Amino acid sequence: MEKRLNIVGGGMAGSEAAWQAVNMGVPVTIHEMRPGVETFAHKTGDLAEMVCSNSFRSDDDEANAVGLLHWEMRAADGLIMEMADRHSLPAGGALAVDRDAFSAAVTERLRAHPLVKVEPAEITTLPDDGTWIIATGPLTSGNLAEAIRGVTGQQSLAFFDAIAPIVYADTVDMDTAWLQSRYDKGETEEERTAYLNCPMTRDQYEAFIDALLAADKTEFKPGETAGYFDGCLPIEVMAERGRETLRFGPMKPVGLTNAHQPDVKPYAVVQLRRDNALGTLYNIVGFQTKMKYGAQTEVFRMIPGLEKAGFARLGGIHRNTFLNSPTLLDDRMRLKTHPHIRFAGQITGVEGYVESAAMGLLAGRMAAAQILGRDLPPPPPQTATGALIHHITGGAEAKTFQPMNVNFGLFPPLTDVKGGRRNRKDRYKAYTDRAKADYSAWLAHVPEPA
Q1: Among 71, 116, 184, 359, which one is least packed by beta carbons within 10 Å?
Q2: Domains defined for the chain, CATH in brackets
Q3: pTM of the complete model
Q4: Residue 373 annotated as lining a ligand binding site
Q5: Which positions are annotated as binding FAD (predicted)?
C-alpha cells in the first residue's frame, strides 16, 4: 500500500483530514482545483475558505451539541478549531471568525508542513488504487460528480444552498441601528455588542414582505428541484411559508432593546453579525437568498438603517450535492464497493462548517491508521462526532436521507435524567458530560493492528 494519503478538496473537511493524518506521521497530498477551476461561491484559492456564514454557531459545550462538537475537535488538536479560536470575533455565545484571516492561517499552516503537498489540479475520476478521501463538499465539480454516480450506480441527491449578503459597516445608519447581542449574551462588553440591529415597525415589515415576495428570483435549470436544507432556507422561501415566518425566525424581535427608543418594542429586527476582525464588514444574519442582484439591493435597502447600504457581497444560490451515505458508506466512512476511497465533509450528508470538519478529522485519522496497518473504530454514538457518523452511515433512513446538523436528537437517550422542557438544562449537561468522558476514552485508545 502506498504510504501517502490523497485528499480531494481543500475545504473544512479536507484541511482537517490532512492535519490529522500528518500529525500521525502520514504524508498527504491535497488535490484542490481552485483557483484554476472556480466555483460559484468561492472567491480565493485558499484552503478552508468560508463561503456562507462566518459563524461556527454556539460555543457552549455544556448545553449545546454544536458547542460539544467544538470541544471534541479541540480535544483532538483540530486545526480548524485552533484557527477559529485564534481568529474569533465577538458574537455573543457563538464562535464567529474573521473569514479571510482564518482561511489564510489554515492555508499557511498546512502549506508549511513538511509532510503536506498541495496539488492545484482538478480530479475528474475516482482512482483505482491508493488511499483516498473525497472531501469536495457541496460544490463537487461536474466531472467528479459524474464519476461518483458512475461508481455508485445511483443518482447523487442534491439540494440548493443559499448565501447571505455582506454589508460595509460604515454604510449602516447608526442613528437607526444599534449594537447589542440578543439577551445581552456574552462575558465582555464586546461580545454583548457583537450584532448590529435594525428595527422595523409593523408597516415596514409588511412592506418588506410584500417586496420580498414580488422580487425577481433566480430560476432553476430544467430538471432541477428546489430541495432546500431547512437550516439554510432562502428568506423568500421562508416568507412564502407565511407572512409571520421571518418574524419568528431570523427577524424575531425578542431579547433586544432599541437603544434609540427603549420604550418602543420593534415589530421585527434584522440582525447583522461582524464578519471580520476590523469590524468593517457585517453579514445579514439568516438572509440567505436567491433573489437576483438588482432585486437584492432594492429590497434590502428597505430595511431601516440600511437605506444607503453598500454591499461587499450580495447573496446567491448554488447546488449542493451529497451522497446517500447510509446506503453507500461503511462505519469507517469507506465506499463499500471501493474501500480504498473514503468520503468526508458535507458530501456525506452532514450540514455545517463544524460538522464537515469533524467528519474530516475522523476520516483523516481512520485513513492514516489504515496506512499504518491499524484499524480505528468510530467514536461511540454517545459523542457528538460518533452520533454524526452513526447517523450518516446507518442511523438515518436511506429513503428519506437529508443533510443533518449535529443535535442531541442523534444521541442515544439518557436513562437516568428526567425528560421534558423543564429539565432540559440538566439533560443537556448530562449528554455533554457523558460525551466528554467517552470521547476522551476514544482519543486515548490505541488502534489495533489491522
Answers
A1: 184
A2: 5-156+323-449 (3.50.50.60), 162-319 (2.40.30.260)
A3: 0.80
A4: no
A5: 9-14
